[in-house]
Structure formats: structure tokens, C-alpha cells
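STRUCTURE:
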């Protein structure tokens, strides 16, 4: 099965692939919103390995999601700055909540 951002990465290769797919998704969202005249701070979210372990990435990612939610009027909110990547359940919960928000974002995108 092809990996997507709904699946919790467990290996270095899976993290690399997840990071690529995730960065692509955020760029796609930014492009769609820009086409509709809704610009927001778009951070460089590409990385390799378990990128969610770096505090700067977590803060940038949370800020970008907050800007998107605000512009699209999405009330769903998760604190994306805090995840224990060494706790498989906590990481899986973070990935699942994050993926749910991406579904809500896709549903609210203009155009």
C-alpha cells in the first residue's frame, strides 16, 4: 500500500516519504488559497527523518495550520507543538488528528 500522511511512519524511509508528501500537501493548500486571494504565512515544512521531533518545525507547522484554520473558518484545533515521538500511541494520535484536519482543510478549500 502506498504511504500517505494518514499513516504513522516508523522507519527512516517512511519518515522521509511522509515529510515529502506532507510538504507537498501544504504547498498544494497554499497554492489553492493563493489562487483565491487568501494568502497566509507558508513555512518551509520539508525535512527528512522524524521531523516532528524538532521544536522549530512543530511551531512553524502549528502556526501554518492556525493561519489556514482562521482563513477557512475551521473550528477544529489541535496543539501540533507537542508530541512524544517515542510514544507510539501518542504519535499515532497526533498523526490521526493531523490527518483529520487536512481532510477538513481540503473540504473548505476555495475553488
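SEQUENCE:
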Amino acid at each position: 500500500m502506498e504511504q500517505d500522511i494518514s499513516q504513522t511512519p516508523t522507519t527512516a524511509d517512511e519518515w522521509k516519504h511522509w515529510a515529502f508528501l506532507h510538504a507537498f500537501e501544504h504547498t498544494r493548500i497554499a497554492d489553492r488559497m493563493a489562487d483565491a486571494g487568501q494568502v497566509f504565512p507558508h513555512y518551509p515544512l520539508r525535512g527528512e527523518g522524524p521531523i516532528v521531533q524538532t521544536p522549530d518545525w512543530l511551531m512553524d507547522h502549528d502556526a501554518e495550520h492556525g493561519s489556514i484554520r482562521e482563513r477557512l473558518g475551521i473550528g477544529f484545533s489541535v496543539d501540533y507543538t507537542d508530541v512524544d515521538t517515542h510514544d507510539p500511541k501518542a504519535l499515532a494520535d497526533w498523526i490521526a488528528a493531523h490527518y483529520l484536519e487536512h481532510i477538513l482543510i481540503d473540504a473548505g478549500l476555495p475553488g
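REMARK: The chain has a mean pLDDT of 86.
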